[in-house]
Input
Amino acid sequence: MELEQLRIFVAVAESGSFTKAAKKLYISHSTTSRAVTALENELGLSLFDRGNRILGLTGAGELLLKESRELLFKAEELEQRMKALKAEK
Output
């Protein structure tokens, strides 16, 4: 599981669309789809219910979304702290 996969997953979950997420992230639809599929394969779980025109989260997807938001926030916070330390030198 990579941070970039989680960023893409969160974008898809929040936008409710692979296409909208791809546009928001300035990446291709196929890149978005491949990242989520790879994440699902790695976890061995479906993260989205892919219905007719409706993209909803499974129970596993709901949990991953909550935890991913927290993890990505902490990763960004850590990156900012490291940049601040570098600036002090």
